[in-house]
Amino acid sequence: MDRGSPEIREIPASADVVVIGGGSCGSVVAGRLSEDPDRRILLVESGPGHRIPAEFPPELVDAGVLPVGPDSRWIWPYPVELTRGRTGWIARGRVLGGSGAVNGGYFVRAQVDDFANWPASWSYEHVLPYFRTIESDADFDGPWHGTTGPIPVRREPADRWHPVSAAFADVAHAAGHPDDPDKNAPGSHGIGPVPLNIRDGVRVGPASAYLLPNLDRPNLTVRSDTTVTRVLFSGTRVVGLEVTTDGRVGTIRASTVVLTAGAVATPHLLMLSGIGDAEHLTTLGIPVVANLPAVGSEFSDHPEVVLPYRYRRPVSRTTRTPVLQVTLNTEDIEMRPYTAAFGDLIPGSGIGKPCLGVVLMKPRSRGEIRLVSADPGDAPTVSYRYLESERDREALQSGVAHAADLMHSGPMSRLLEPERIETSDDWLADHLGTSLHLSGSCRMGVDEESSVVDERCRVHGIDGLYVVDTSILPSVPSRGPHATAVMVAERAHTFM
Ligand SMILES: Cc1cc2nc3c(=O)[nH]c(=O)nc-3n(C[C@H](O)[C@H](O)[C@H](O)COP(=O)(O)OP(=O)(O)OC[C@H]3O[C@@H](n4cnc5c(N)ncnc54)[C@H](O)[C@@H]3O)c2cc1C
């Protein structure tokens, strides 16, 4: 590696603003900031890039496929411990578009009470205009919805539902759950179609909606296949970045840096750069720039227990059928009748059977991300600590028991035969996964003890450094985080 090279020729030596990570939030921030022709914006993405949506490889286009298997070239794989003694790995998107380019296309807003633990300037009334700005809802308008935003939102009509979506909706209604036609309305709960950022079977994530249409702006430069390895400071002021591309190391000068590397890579990069728990950094020989113990601490995510079954008769699924068409939302559980086995949805995953997901949407267990070394090439450890809260275990047990009842009733029991379902702690742990909604690893808040950024997304005690991605959500919302992350990015660009 040529560490002596001071500059990398193809990358601008400086920019007014550098955005680190061209994922869901980075695409929004770079797209919006570059609307001002007098600001030079550089977006640096570790994964491969595309100039136009037509260049997207088919697996990134087809919303019926999650291209995040072990051999995928579009992901960062991270080893994780889900709960004590149960290890595995998780994927995060590593491509222009980030996780939003490989995800399930479920685009549901956080609920009103999710904002209770956000700073007061992020109440539902404050964020509603931004939720409306980001979307073009094809099904609903009025005070809660936007109709002219970049992200198309629509729900699958019932006549296009997969047999398992239709059967599940029937049994949920029969069990007394209310109809929930608009899951993006305040107070939504019950059974209904999922708002999707999918148009004609094609995933339309923030890169397609905010970034790619604007690549011809002279003041916007996007550099893919380039990894930031450190943020550089003079004292506590940002002065630039260290990057690696094609095995070469160089620097970029910038006085404003927006970190949008996602909820695992952002705390990783902050710690490598000297921002984090001082004791932890010092142990690894990293000079401390700011002692912020909340970096990587107490993140939250949705634990998901999967209930496998077999179909009693052959069931076909057309290509580009969304992964999820309907969900049932109760007080703290979401049930997901996936339209295919994960083995089919995630090429190479080897997870064969179709399943119903039972997900805890307001988990109390909190996890931790820590460095193993000061080498940027070493993945951090990600410890979820799922099921450590007794209330989480009880809520999941009761959710699984209710799901079993639904699977054994009416049209569901005629369509499929569930495998044996139990609610013991061991059985839950054996069937445990994660929804990949990791949030809160660099929380927004008021003080330096318990949070990392202030309500304008500035890292406490540092000049020129913002964080704008799912890491700053104070906790994982009670719905998937994608719509909320895009809303945050849409608002946050106005702070810069
Ligand atoms: C498989 C999968 C399915 C999901 N399904 C859904 C769903 O259906 N609905 C939902 O609400 N949520 C879903 N999620 C979660 C949701 O997609 C994410 O929470 C959201 O996209 C995160 O956005 P982000 O901007 O925080 O990070 P990301 O979109 O992950 O973007 C981070 C970007 O930064 C880049 N990067 C990282 N480190 C560096 C570095 N050092 N230098 C340069 N670039 C770097 C990455 O390559 C990536 O492109 C899913 C997630 C996954 C992984």
Summarize the structure.
This protein is of the alpha/beta class and 496 residues long. It contains twelve helices and 26 strands. The strands form seven sheets. Strands 7, 18, 19, 20, 21, 24 and 25 form a seven-stranded antiparallel sheet that branches. A five-stranded parallel sheet has the order 10-2-1-14-26, with helices on one face. A five-stranded mixed sheet has the order 4-3-23-22-17, covered by helices on one side.
Q: Beta-sheet strand percentage?
A: 15-25%
Q: What's the pLDDT, averaged over the residues?
A: 94
**Tally of individual helices:** 12
State the separation between the terminal residues, measured CA to CA: 35 Å
Largest sheet: 7 strands, antiparallel
As residue ranges, the low-confidence spans are 1-9
Binned, the helix content reads 10-25%
Radius of gyration: 22 Å
What ligands does this structure carry? flavin-adenine dinucleotide
What would you call the shape? Answer: globular
Structural class: alpha/beta
Number of strands: 26
Describe this structure in words.
About 20% of the residues lie in helices and about 25% in strands. With about 500 residues, it is an alpha/beta fold. The strands form 7 sheets. Strands 7, 18, 19, 20, 21, 24 and 25 form a 7-stranded antiparallel beta sheet that branches. Helix 3 (about 125-135) crosses helix 12 (about 480-490). The longest helix has 18 residues, at about 390-405. It is globular and about 65 Å long. The two termini are about 35 Å apart. The model is unreliable at about 1-10 (pLDDT under 50). The structure holds flavin-adenine dinucleotide (FAD).
